[in-house]
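Q: Convert this sequence to structure tokens.
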Amino acid sequence: MTAHLPSKPSSQEQPSFRHELYPYRGDAHFLSGTLGYIHEALEGGEAVVVAVPSDKASLLRGELADESAVTFVDTTTLGPNPGRLIDAWVDWMKERGEGDRPVRGIGETAWREARSAAHLSELRYHEWILNRAFARSSAWSMLCPYDATDEDQSSLQALSRCHPLIREDGHYMRNEAYLTAEEYPFEALNPPCTPFQELTYTHGDLTAIRSKVSQCASDAGVPEDQQRKLAVAVTEIATNSIRHGGGRGTLRTWTQNSTFLCEFRDAGYIPDVMVGRTRPNTDQIGGRGLWLAHQLCDLVEIRSTPDQGTTVRLHTDVPSHS
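A:
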């Protein structure tokens, strides 16, 4: 059940980040909802940042007549890893929110371009973690259009759990399906494909780890430039694992569906759900390893619990030679 809320918070309401899911069906429905959201922002003197697929951007541009308060950005320049998106949104919002000017974002993820079940899972997690990232950003709000045409209800329900509000008929409503629990219910990682390579490591084994990954990545067909990036990411993750994961861990590597994977498992626990998703401060000591991994790899999966320890998977795309 949902309850209608006013289009804007009253003066008595506690300001907070407004994160709305907008399920639509077809181009006309997409335009009616997003244009209503944009015009509502413009009437209130707010700026708007739009990050939607190119075909949807063309539809909006045709209706907005080069409105100066609306900026279009291209998320494809960030690469496939959704772990890079929060930093990008922080930059875009700050650039447009001069002074105390409120900013609205419209971000439509290209769900149908998801490369794997793991990628789709991380895309959903990004939608949920936005609520944490911008929880105190009362001057920012976000509309997430989602093409529900021909979609099964389970996909829409899974995404609905990531949004506290749903937009419908020009209003946003509370979404009682939203997951307010402190712990996000991660989907379990699938076991490694066989055959996989395995190496147990401890202090002094960084050279062996890099050598193992380099050989396996080369055998899998990973290009040399990406191998160099992967070597940096692997060094960072292995170092963190040894320092904070009980001094030892297990490395596994394998290839699955044109993706080369490196998995690090140890006994440590990472309580920060935002780890790796925001750029470290220049004077910050530590905390750069997982952020670098997100910048260098095509996907990063993190699973960490106090009782089962931590697993970090680094995905690297392998180009097709067909």
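Residues 197-317 form a domain with the Heat Shock Protein 90 fold (CATH 3.30.565.10).
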